[in-house]
Amino acid sequence: MLEKMNNISTQPLDDSVPVCKKRKCDNECNEAEKDGDSSSAVVPFSFAFSDFKLVKVLREDARGKLVTLHGTVGDKDAVVVLERKAFDIPVLEECLQQTTVKETLQNDVYSTFDVYSSGSIAHMKATLIHPATEKHISKYSDREPFIVRETPELYRSVVLPSIQENKFSFQWVYNILEKKTESERIVAEDPDPEVGFVMVPDMKWNRENVESLYLIAIVHRRGIRSIRDLRQEHLPLLENILNKGLAAIEEKFSVKADKLRIYFHYQPSYYHLHVHFTHVKFEAPGTDALRAHLLEDVIDNIKMNSEFYNLKTLSYIVREHDALYYAFQDKKYFV
Amino acid sequence: MLEKMNNISTQPLDDSVPVCKKRKCDNECNEAEKDGDSSSAVVPFSFAFSDFKLVKVLREDARGKLVTLHGTVGDKDAVVVLERKAFDIPVLEECLQQTTVKETLQNDVYSTFDVYSSGSIAHMKATLIHPATEKHISKYSDREPFIVRETPELYRSVVLPSIQENKFSFQWVYNILEKKTESERIVAEDPDPEVGFVMVPDMKWNRENVESLYLIAIVHRRGIRSIRDLRQEHLPLLENILNKGLAAIEEKFSVKADKLRIYFHYQPSYYHLHVHFTHVKFEAPGTDALRAHLLEDVIDNIKMNSEFYNLKTLSYIVREHDALYYAFQDKKYFV
């Protein structure tokens, strides 16, 4: 019955809605039952896990308490992303009163417990994609990772031809640079065609909490694909992004240089040079040493040797079904 | 009543214990109630969240679904680490049958739901430290991070004196190297005093799942504090660790080089040179570009310039209350 309450979708449980502490916790614990009483809404869609037949676990993230499942609902494929809920701090203490615990270990001052809730608390959230296509299933699957050690020779013989062959469109990048889109979101800009850039918020940032700040500086100059292409002639561009980017972030968000992780991705997700600025407290995806290259390290390395990134072997992760995965496979790189 | 079941601590719910799928799920859902019936045990310790008064949220990890709380139990301080449970894949499908869902959003093929369990499922685990000292509270607190750009000059004037002053004991390291402890855990070894090392599993690895493989190679040679000290003369040592380490891991665990992230930490947690080998699928702490330095990059950089790590400015995170934090503060590095 609950699963038919489609009218609730117009009023999602939103943490940002202010409610008194007491009520919020009651809601979280009891709303499921209460909602069962009102059933006058139109029902264009319904779902219950009793209708879901598991086909395969696509991905498991034990640290993030998340699993992705491929299954069927009726005769159609479905993908379900199941994730434990983060704790709701304002009402946590109160909600904990309604729990019982079972000790699993005790040693000196340390004890561990399993925690059970007596009320009906929504402790998971689910995302359902139904009907799901092959593409959905592939996108949510755990694709096997391989570490590639890209020598300059491998770059020239495998990677560069693959990038050129894929003919990515940069129209969306040019739209930002020419202020045709997202112009109201611009945080900093320098129109100079050689050393200029436009800085905009990344989609992953809600622009509310500066501790999850994520900005992207996109260079005006065209034709620089990635750090592989950087030489001494680009130092004024790189130093301009660093200095003007830092100044703009301090001015607009009061976040100082010593709180900012500033880096390139290699491989990048698109081959028009751009720099990531993220708050050091934000565990952004792609900050791993196998992908992130600190802007200041790049500047130092090029100053030491203009050909550093022309000569360097660069290590990174390639995943099954990536375009680059097929390019390396064609050359029999993986054994 | 449940919280007094201290006898349960001798039989922790252990996922590795084989039980039939049906029973496991029933257990997870109902064990809390069932256990309430047997109460003949000695009760040296009891805890319930109704006794816990929250003082302060020490740390929040929304991605890991984890919070650390400082509170009091009676008149004593306590630290509680509260963490959502990861999903138990073998019984997941069955447990999902006992849930109800409430739709929170619907758009085309995408829907999101809050998920409620009807049974009593342990969906959190808690670690309690009680009584807790100031040191416990500080250890579990979120300490403010600062990015330091350590120039060679800062290394010599601030960092090296701080390392020397702290006079860390390496006895536990020497015990491993001399096989006084952990000798049964050794994965690979080369007794050569110049290029040799001992490889042992890190405490974070349970040695069961190779996809969370975490090994440490500790060099026999004494006096190399960190990558700052590495020069061309150390290339045979570094290449020996790389080659023999990879060979041992492939032989013992069938994990190949293209699945292994191999790196130093800078700053390291102890100043006797050691190398981390982790499975690329394992999101080990400390793989961020602000801490991890790939062994193969270090080898390449030293080959290019023996003084690379003597001249390089190295960026890393220092946290409030770290020894280095105070060292930098004394020199008025933070403004």
TrEMBL record, chains A, B:
Keywords in alphabetical order: Hydrolase, mRNA processing, Nucleus
Any one Gene Ontology cellular component term annotated for this protein: P-body
GO annotation terms (biological process): deadenylation-dependent decapping of nuclear-transcribed mRNA; mRNA processing
Stored InterPro entries: DcpS/DCS2, HIT-like_sf, Scavenger_mRNA_decap_enz_N
Membrane as UniProt keyword: no
GO molecular function terms listed in the Swiss-Prot or TrEMBL record: 5'-(N(7)-methyl 5'-triphosphoguanosine)-[mRNA] diphosphatase activity; RNA 7-methylguanosine cap binding
Pfam annotation, one family: DcpS
Coiled-coil region(s): none
EC number: 3.6.1.59
Keyword Nucleotide-binding: no
Active site: 274 (nucleophile)
Subcellular location as annotated: Nucleus
Residues that, per the record, bind substrate: 172, 182, 202, 204, 265-276
Family in the record: Belongs to the HIT family.
Summary of the function given for this chain in its UniProt record: Decapping scavenger enzyme that catalyzes the cleavage of a residual cap structure following the degradation of mRNAs by the 3'->5' exosome-mediated mRNA decay pathway.
Protein name, as recorded: m7GpppX diphosphatase
Native organism: Candidula unifasciata
